[in-house]
Amino acid sequence: MIPTVVGLAFGQFAPLVDSLCISKILEEDALSAMSTVNPVYYLFNIVAVLGGIGGGIGIAKSMGTGNKYQGGRIFTKVMIFLTAATAVLSVLCLIFIDPLLKILCATERNYGYARDYLAVLLMGMVFYVLNNALVYILMDDNDADPKNTVKADRIGSLSHNTNEYLDELKREPLGNVLLTGATGFLGIHVLRELIENTDEKVYCLVHSGKVKAEHRLKDMLYYYFETTYDELFGERLFVVEGDITHPETFDSLSDAEYSTVINCAACVKHFADIEYLKSINYKGVENLTELCLKTGSRLIHISTVSVAGSVEEENKDKMVLREDMLDIGQEVEDNGYVYTKYLAEKHVLKCIEEKNLDAKIIRVGNLSSRVRDGEFQVNFRTNAFMNSLKAYAVLGCFPISSMSEKKICLILMRLHVP
Fold first, then answer.
1. Where are the domains of the chain?
2. pLDDT tens digit string along 278-314?
3. What are phi and psi of 241, to 5 degrees?
């Protein structure tokens, strides 16, 4: 607060002091020259305000997620940009000072004073701009405390995902469940858990194709668990034909009673058309949030740790995605799957903040074969991680870039490489 007040006071009193000194020491023409030059003040003040407010928001967002490193980078870039922009603008004004004064309507009587006064101002304008910009940045700063700072990109809804709030956790009943993605590898195992460990009804949203939706679900149940749970269909298990990309599908759920929506539906292909990925991973989630807001249901959205994206090699140890963060300055747009899952998280968090959506996000890592029997997804050939493992086995090689420094050192030691 004190630096902000001092900065504001300096910025406001400086012109007043100039006016008083000039009016007392010099003649009226000198005072009128100050008024002639004032628009230049306003021009540079606009640069300061834009840089200060824009930079302040970016810094506050980073600090609000606890990412001080990213906040520091933004601050440095803003200061460099403002210094460079002000210096270039000042030099241009000095070069074209005579035409500029004519535009500002300097008279023959005050022209000399205006020229001298403007030249002096321009030589110190960098400090004026940086001072004003810092005032706006400090206004947005709030001690970098994730609980007190502005909510960065709806991250306020993640602020309690830390150890200090563990005691506030409480178990709540799921109630009847609407499950999407039930025929996928993760979804079918979630369904099995719900069947075996609860007494609730489960509505499975399954899209039909050449095989009817109910048959597809039973086929997957038998493939993974060697049982179809025939006796539960119509009693506890209900199949609804459709998918999350078509919101009209939800009309058939008007009579269904459920209080929790678990979204396991996703296109996990890393090399697919971006619009196709968006239609499922992002637009589909938009449709589900609207459904939950309309019905008052809780949304449990299955996301991925891959939203951590990629970062520059030199920043890997400094930029870590925690459970109370989403934006850490990572690159997500170079991978369609990662980008659309990132957009989906942003949307869910926005709905939590702005529309009071009852929701939680669960980020899962690489899915792999079951421990007890090695069973994996039916379409394992489309799994990027599995294909990578297969390539390593065929080539008999493993990329050094995927190893930690410790592992590389151990290998070199075994090979007796100095």
1. 2-150, 167-382, 386-418
2. 999 999 999 999 999 999 999 999 999 999 888 776 6
3. -75, 135
Query: Which pair of tokens denotes residue 403?
Result: 């190893």
Alpha-carbon distance 334 to 196, whole Å? 40
Helix, strand, or coil here: 222? Answer: helix
Token pair 């004073």: residue: 113
**Which pTM does this prediction carry?**
0.62
Nearest to 300 by CA among 344, 260, 347: 260
* pLDDT tens digits along 310-352: 877 666 666 778 888 888 888 888 899 999 999 999 999 999 9
Looking up tokens 């490193």 gives 69
* DSSP one-letter code for 310: B
385: tokens are: 């991680």
Two structure tokens written together for 253: 């759920």
Token pair recorded at residue 359: 């929701």
The three-state secondary structure class of 102 is helix
DSSP state of 263: E
Give the span between the Cα atoms of 205 and 191, in whole angstroms.
12
Sheet of strand 359-364: strand arrangement = 237-241, 202-206, 177-180, 260-263, 298-304, 359-364
Half-sphere exposure (CA, 13 Å, Cβ side) for 114? 24
The CATH code of domain 167-382 reads 3.40.50.720
- Where does 128-210 show beta strands of DSSP type E? 177-180, 202-206
Q: pLDDT of 225-252, one tens digit each?
A: 999 999 999 999 999 999 999 989 898 8
% pLDDT > 70, the chain = 80
User: In angstroms, rounded to a whole number, what is the distance separating the alpha carbons of residues 72 and 62?
Assistant: 9
Write down the pLDDT at residue 192: 96
Cβ neighbors of 28 (< 8 A, separation 6 or more) are none
